[in-house]
Amino acid sequence: MADGERAAAMVRAEGVRKRFRRTEVLKGIDLEVRSGEVLCLIGPSGSGKSTLLRCVNHLERIDDGRIYVDGELIGYRERGDALHELHEREVCRQRSAIGMVFQRFNLFPHMTALENVIEAPIRVRHDAKADATERATALLARVGLTHKAHAYPSELSGGQQQRVAIARALAMRPKLMLFDEPTSALDPELVGEVLAVMRALADDGMTMIVVTHEMAFAREAGHRIAFMDDGVIVESGAPREMLSHPEHARTRAFLSRLLTHPIT
Question: How many CB atoms within 10 Å of residue 5?
Answer without folding.
Answer: 11
